[in-house]
TrEMBL record:
<dbReference type="InterPro" id="IPR015168">
    <property type="entry name" value="SsuA/THI5"/>
</dbReference>
<feature type="signal peptide">
    <location>
        <begin position="1"/>
        <end position="26"/>
    </location>
</feature>
<keyword id="KW-0732">Signal</keyword>
<dbReference type="Pfam" id="PF09084">
    <property type="entry name" value="NMT1"/>
</dbReference>
<protein>
    <submittedName>
        <fullName>ABC transporter substrate-binding protein</fullName>
    </submittedName>
</protein>
<comment type="similarity">
    <text>Belongs to the bacterial solute-binding protein SsuA/TauA family.</text>
</comment>
<dbReference type="GO" id="GO:0042597">
    <property type="term" value="C:periplasmic space"/>
</dbReference>
<feature type="domain" description="SsuA/THI5-like">
    <location>
        <begin position="50"/>
        <end position="258"/>
    </location>
</feature>
């Protein structure tokens, strides 16, 4: 009787241990699957942001335990409103927007913590084919530019002035078209030149509606054009999250640099369903060849000074904002 009880007791004990073990494993498994949600707002949908889409598609964010919800907010003002109002955690937008917020004496300033793009991303498109382009050809023409105070327009003016052209005096400058409608306005209008991102510029060229004649990115040199930013309070509370976020992007950036353009294009194709793979590939290669994708994601002091010089030249900034006030480079360094 005793042996039978012991045998029964041992069986129950083993069953209990097994149940506990399975429960523990299940608990560990559920922890592995529990991803931290992070809301990200991008200022526009652009091939210029290829590393971000690669990080999403190849699962680099999930490897870091993050569940990214990406929203396109179409415009710097809308993107910053979403960030300041708590509608998003992280914004991908021009670094100049953080300076505009700072100038308004925000109680919770917006901090740039990682740089995605290191050059301007726009191209000068001509309505007529020009075999031997020179910048002075813009004088006396109608130029469809970008929104006043936005990074594309400020860099565009910076480049034109470098070539001895005052866009407000030497051209008929049009700036009243909403960012998302610039390409359509040009296609249906009569302007001589327009400033466009890829793949829109290449698409227009393929359709015979315009011809790429110059790159503002090549002309402007290194500029902290588009950065990831968050409110200071968010970064203080979620610094580890920000580090994981950047680490995933660094993986993606390295993969983009080491992988052929066609493979990269196929990877990000879901984000550009109306653009053919070959067009995406050529756009990605164009950006990669001119160093548009930031190699280390660190917004440097020299880059910060450059962007403020461009803003001053455009009449959008009167006082310099110290680097340490609006830039936190430690997050990228920790991610590395």
């Amino acid at each position: 009787m005793m042996k039978k009880w012991l045998k029964s007791g041992c069986t129950l004990l083993l069953a209990a241990l097994l149940a506990f073990s399975l429960s523990a494993c299940g608990s560990i498994g559920s922890k592995k699957k529990a991803l931290q949600k992070v809301r990200v707002a991008e200022v526009t949908r652009s091939v210029f942001y290829t590393p971000l889409y690669v990080a999403l598609e190849k699962g680099y964010f999930k490897e870091e335990g993050l569940d990214i919800k990406l929203t396109t907010t179409w415009g710097g003002d809308k993107t910053m409103t979403a960030l300041l109002s708590g509608g998003t955690d992280i914004a991908l937008v021009g670094s100049e927007t953080s300076i505009y917020v700072y100038k308004q004496k925000a109680a919770d300033p917006v901090i740039n913590f990682a740089q995605l793009t290191a050059t301007d991303g726009t191209f000068l498109v001509s309505r007529k084919k020009i075999d031997h382009f020179s910048w002075d050809m813009l004088k006396g023409t109608t130029f469809l530019g970008q929104r006043k105070g936005g990074m594309p327009q400020m860099v565009g003016e910076f480049v034109l002035k470098k070539h001895g052209i005052d866009p407000h005096k030497d051209t008929k400058l049009i700036q009243n078209i909403d960012f998302a409608n610039v390409a359509n306005a040009y296609a249906s209008g009569t302007e001589d030149f327009v400033q466009l991102f890829e793949p829109t510029a290449s698409t227009m060229e393929k359709e015979g509606k315009g011809y790429i004649v110059a790159s503002f990115g090549k002309e402007s040199g290194e500029v902290p054009y588009t950065t990831f930013m968050a409110k200071q309070s968010y970064l203080k509370e979620h610094e580890k999250t920000a580090v994981k976020f950047v680490r995933a992007l660094l993986k993606a950036g390295k993969w983009v640099q080491e992988t052929d353009a066609e493979t990269v294009a196929k990877t990000v194709q879901p984000y550009f369903k109306d653009t053919k793979t070959d067009m995406l590939a050529s756009s990605i290669e164009r950006y990669r060849s001119q160093g548009s994708f930031s190699s280390d994601m660190i917004l440097t002091k020299s880059g910060w000074n450059t962007i403020q010089d461009i803003m001053k030249e455009a009449g959008e900034l009167d006082h310099t904002v110290p680097y340490d006030k609006l830039v936190n480079a430690s997050i990228v360094k920790k991610a590395k």
